[in-house]
Design goal:
mainly alpha; single chain
Length: 146
C-alpha cells in the first residue's frame, strides 16, 4: 500500500519541483529584462528629472516602459499554454488510458489565473530595485556622461 502511495505522489513531487525551478528561472529572467530596460533608459530618466519630473512621473514612465513587454509575454505565453494544454488533453483523454490527471484535466482556468497572478507579483517585485535606481538617478552626472 505504501509503495502505491509513493508511486502516486512521486510524479506530483517531480512536477512541483520542475514548476518551482521554472518559476525561479522566469523570475530571474523577468528581473534581468526589467533591469536592462531601466539601464538603457538611464539617460532619458536623467533628462526627465533634470527637466523637473517628479518621483511619481519617473515611476510611471519606468513602469509603463517595462510592463509593455511583460504584457506581450503574458499574452503570447498564455495563448501558447492554452494551445499546448489542448494538445495534452488530446493525449490524455483516450478511452483506454486511465485518467493521469486524477480528475484535474489538462486545462484548468484557476491554475492558469494563479500562474499569471504569481508572475505579475514577481514582475512587481522585480520592478522595485530598478525603480529605486531610476528615481535616484543624478541628472547632472547623466548629462555630463556625453
Amino acid at each position: 500500500m505504501a509503495l502505491q502511495q509513493l508511486m502516486a505522489r512521486l510524479p506530483a513531487v517531480i512536477a512541483l519541483t520542475l514548476a518551482l525551478a521554472g518559476l525561479a528561472l522566469a523570475s530571474v529572467g523577468v528581473y534581468g529584462v526589467i533591469a536592462q530596460i531601466v539601464t538603457k533608459r538611464t539617460r532619458e530618466i536623467g533628462i526627465h528629472i533634470a527637466l523637473g519630473a517628479g518621483r511619481s512621473q519617473v515611476v510611471r514612465l519606468v513602469a509603463m516602459k517595462t510592463l509593455r513587454p511583460v504584457a506581450w509575454g503574458v499574452m503570447i505565453g498564455g495563448v501558447g499554454a492554452v494551445g499546448l494544454s489542448l494538445v495534452v488533453r488530446s493525449f490524455i483523454s483516450a478511452p483506454d488510458v486511465p485518467d493521469l490527471t486524477f480528475g484535474a484535466g489538462a486545462f484548468s482556468l484557476p491554475v492558469f489565473g494563479a500562474v499569471v497572478g504569481v508572475l505579475l507579483v514577481i514582475v512587481m517585485a522585480a520592478l522595485v530595485v530598478p525603480l529605486r535606481r531610476a528615481v535616484t538617478v543624478d541628472p547632472v552626472r547623466t548629462l555630463r556622461s556625453d
